[in-house]
Automatic annotation (TrEMBL):
Residues 360-407 are annotated as: Disordered. The keyword Membrane applies. It comes from Micromonospora parastrephiae. The chain crosses the membrane at residues 26-44, 56-78, 99-118, 138-159, 171-189, 259-278, 290-309, 329-349. Pfam families: Acyl_transf_3. Residues 375-386 have a biased composition (Polar residues). GO terms for molecular function: acyltransferase activity. Keywords: Acyltransferase, Membrane, Transferase, Transmembrane, Transmembrane helix. PANTHER family: ACETYLTRANSFERASE (PTHR23028), ACYL_TRANSF_3 DOMAIN-CONTAINING PROTEIN (PTHR23028:SF53). This is Acyltransferase. InterPro entries: Acyl_transf_3_dom (IPR002656), Acyltransferase_3 (IPR050879). Residues 20-346 form the Acyltransferase domain.
Length: 407
């Protein structure tokens, strides 16, 4: 899910925060939760289960939303002068403490139920490299949802190396990428025929370079918006497009198509919500309760599967579910219990460890930059690259200032 884990970074100025994107993170986490609640067959009553299936049949795409959002937020919030190692250290501080706690908890659960866990499997998961291993018992190991963190770590490794190129890219190339990346996602489905059948799910759903297409889609859109070049529908229209896409895809569209369609729909909602925040327009996604839910969504995503499977196994309802009204009640109970645990994890692990481990951001003056002319170069670029800084030196002010000024 941060992944499922990247909240917009706080910065001075009216456009420094994108709280609507934080609120939307909770909606994505809820989609994933609903999907797992359906696939775990918590609800035994067919009529009740049909409702959950209808609402959340595409809920797995919530991870797709997290990946797109992650690329968008990290490019939007990139600061001039940030060093690569500083960025990597900040990302590890954000992701790893929660992962470590859930890794230990999952191993304790496995010990309680006498589930065998190979040391090599546990080590892969601990180091977050399991998504590179096509064996089913390996990439879905220990805390199963942590495969997405393995993908995110790959994205984090690549971004500081690619961002200077992204900053220097011509608008025509960026728009070409906006069109090409969804088409590449679509092309993965025929391309999987080149992969052994047993590894096709891993190839399309888990393999980090493949899933990075969604991350780069968000990154390119953020760069276009940062320059004031993004053109997309407003938040109301984008939300309507998403709802329509979701309904149509759930009923009539094959998986080969809906993954691409939803990637585009998610991108439109993300950019529209960011635009609403930048321009100070109304947005239903930045209310205080939704922002808090978005802040704990990463922890929620990490705990929800482990909690539900453990309880179902303890009660003996694993694979059978709860009959009658107890099924929907159990789903609601799981939602609340996971939310409480996520709040505790966010409050006592994620937040204090970020403060302790992450390097402090240096204060930057709020300066509106002079728009960069086509073909312009700066001697600062080479000097900053030599200094191992990963944001082009020509962008002296923060990216969002360029965007806000140009609008």
């Amino acid at each position: 899910m941060t992944s499922t884990a990247d909240a917009p970074a706080a910065r001075p100025g009216p456009a420094s925060r994108l709280p609507s994107l934080t609120g939307l993170r909770w909606i994505a986490a809820l989609l994933v939760f609903g999907f797992h609640a359906g696939t775990m067959r918590i609800i035994a009553e067919p009529d009740y289960k049909a409702v959950v299936d209808a609402l959340f049949t595409l809920g797995l795409s919530g991870v797709q939303f997290f990946f797109i959002l992650s690329g968008f937020v990290l490019v939007w919030s990139a600061r001039p002068g940030d060093r690569r190692r500083t960025f990597w250290r900040r990302r590890v501080a954000k992701i790893y403490p929660n992962h470590l706690v859930l890794w230990v908890a999952a191993l304790l659960v496995a010990w309680w139920f006498a589930d065998p866990v190979l040391p090599a499997v546990a080590l892969e998961n601990l180091l977050l490299v399991q998504a590179w291993d096509p064996r089913p018992g390996w990439f879905y190991s220990v805390n199963t949802v942590s495969w997405s963190l393995s993908c995110e770590f790959f994205f984090y490794l690549c971004l500081p190396l690619a961002l200077p190129l992204l900053r220097r890219s011509r608008p025509a190339l960026l728009w070409t990428l906006i069109v090409a990346l969804p088409l590449l996602i679509l092309a993965l489905w025929p391309a999987q025929q080149l992969v052994p059948e047993a590894s096709r799910w891993w190839f399309t759903q888990i393999f980090p370079p493949v899933r990075s297409l969604e991350f780069w889609l968000g990154a390119v859109a953020a760069e276009l918006m940062r320059r004031g070049l993004w053109r997309g529908p407003g938040l109301t229209a984008a939300s309507a497009i998403f709802v329509a896409t979701w309904v149509v895809a759930a009923q009539w569209i094959r998986a080969e198509l809906w993954t691409t369609l939803l990637a585009v729909a998610y991108l439109l909602v993300i950019t529209a919500a960011a635009d609403a925040d930048v321009r100070g327009r109304r947005s239903p996604w930045r209310s205080r309760p939704l922002v808090w839910l978005g802040e704990v969504s990463f922890a929620f995503y990490l705990v929800h599967v482990l909690v539900m499977t453990s309880v179902l196994r303890l009660t003996g309802d694993w694979g059978t579910g709860f009959g009658g009204w107890r099924g929907p009640a159990a789903v609601l109970g799981f939602l609340l219990a996971n939310l409480v645990l996520a709040g505790l994890l966010h409050r006592f692990v994620e937040t204090p460890m970020m403060r302790r481990l992450a390097p402090r951001r240096r204060a930057h003056p709020s300066v509106v930059p002079r728009p960069r002319t086509a073909g312009a170069t700066s001697a600062d670029e080479s000097s900053e690259q030599a200094g191992n800084r990963w944001v082009g030196g020509a962008d002296r002010a923060e990216g969002r200032s360029t965007y806000a000024d140009s609008r």
